[in-house]
Amino acid sequence: MEYLTSVHLDPKGDAVVLTARGRVFVAPAAQGRLVRVSREPGVRYRDVVFLPDGKRLLGLSDATGELEFATLPANGVGEPVALTSDGKVLRFEGVPSPDGQWVAYTDNNNDLWLLNVATKAQTLLSPNREGASDVAWSPDSRFLAWSQAAPNRFDQVLLYALETKTRTAV
To answer: pTM to 2 decimals?
Structure first.
């Protein structure tokens, strides 16, 4: 499939979300029906993943003219819910926390951001412009780890504790 841009498995392994030519589909892993999730004319999606509850999807939508994070119902019934609306810089794929309350993402400035799904508040975690990569959550969603280039150009690993809002180089 030359137009398939992303494929992600749901948390239980029962379905996959497919993004192709800006459209979003959910396909069962076994028997069942293919669901077209995105229905808005002229709106395209990218980097769509399942949220941990398996009932919602998270992706980047161009409905406003900028790439903004939105959730969509995985069963295709209901409207998308915008999580961001301030797209001044191109955003990249979000990494949801295991509890589904947070999304970590990078932008075109190489900054790392943390988005609270409930309040839609965003926090800049790493403004070093060197780029954050290998973003990973602890299983209990209390810590976020990532790697980035240090001033000496060697990679360093950083850890952010959500409870105390502290960042530590490890």
So the answer is: 0.90
